[in-house]
Amino acid sequence: TPMEFLLLGFFSGLSLILAIGPQNIFVIEQGLKKQHVLLVCLICSISDLILIFLGIFLFHYFVQYFTPIIELVLNILLIIFLLHFIYSKIKAFNVKIDFGDDQNIISKYSIAIKTLGFTYLNPHVYSDTVFILGNFSKNLMLNEKILFGIGGSVASFLFFFIIGYLAKFFSKYAQNKQVWKIINLFIIMFMSFLTFLVFLQIFN
Fold first, then answer.
1. Burial code of 46-77, b = ≥16 C-beta within 10 A, e = fewer?
2. Under a CB-based contact definition with an 8 Å cutoff, are residues 155 and 13 in contact?
3. Angle at 198 (CA atoms; ends 72, 35), nearest 5 degrees
4. Which of 146, 147, 152 is closest to 129 using CA atoms?
5. Which residues contact 17 (CB under 8 A, 6 or more apart)?
6. Which of 1, 2, 81, 168 is such that its CA lies 20 to 30 A from the CA of 117?
7. Cβ distance 146 to 12 under 8 Å?
8. CA–CA separation, 81 vs 191, rounded Å?
9. CB burial of residue 158 (10 Å; 0-12, 13-18, 19+)
10. Rg of the chain's alpha carbons, rounded to an integer?
């Protein structure tokens, strides 16, 4: 039944997206800061929808052209991006945090660029959406593929909006400078760990 393929796509997408990565951490952080949460969630969700359907319809084309060189370039770009992000976090570690609700302190443009970076510079985004979901759906009929893609996309929309707005809801508990320092420290450590993992991938 159509519902089966919707659910198959939904749970396949959800199982892949639940792995905590730099993109998810960034969405949570923007939620906690109450900075352009809607914009961040929309960019992540729509990007996933585009990539899921790219994977479904262009799977063979991508497998042919996604060479180790392209993966290496993406990994190097991701490392540069993550190192810059970690550096900015360390630099801002002792800066006084303004907990005002003024969302315009950081421009929408700056947040959009960061969100796009965390989305499109991460090779795992491609491996999850394009390769795994694309590969998974390659033997389905066209209408089944569409339902599968819709299911996966709904999982992404729900996931990003839930973590973004849940973090925004809990932001009142993070209005403490000490709590925010701990959150920042966790982000620095986690992003450093992810950078290390990407390094290992390159030299494997």
1. ebbbebbbbbbbebeebeeebeeeeeeebbee
2. yes
3. 110
4. 152
5. 24, 48, 128, 155, 156, 159
6. 168
7. no
8. 11
9. middle
10. 18
Residue 95 class from Cβ within 10 Å (0-12 exposed, 13-18 middle, 19+ buried)?
exposed
Q: Return per-residue pLDDT of the chain as tens, 204 residues.
A: 788 999 988 988 887 777 667 888 889 889 988 889 999 999 999 999 999 998 888 765 555 565 677 777 777 877 887 788 788 778 877 666 555 555 556 789 999 999 999 899 877 787 777 777 877 787 788 888 899 999 999 999 999 999 999 999 988 776 667 777 787 788 788 778 878 887 887 776
Other beta carbons within 10 Å of 15? 12
Helix (H, G, I), strand (E, B) or coil at 47: helix
31 within 8 A of 143, measured Cβ to Cβ: no
DSSP conformation class of 1: -
Residues composing the chain: 204
Would the pTM count as exceeding 0.85? Answer: no
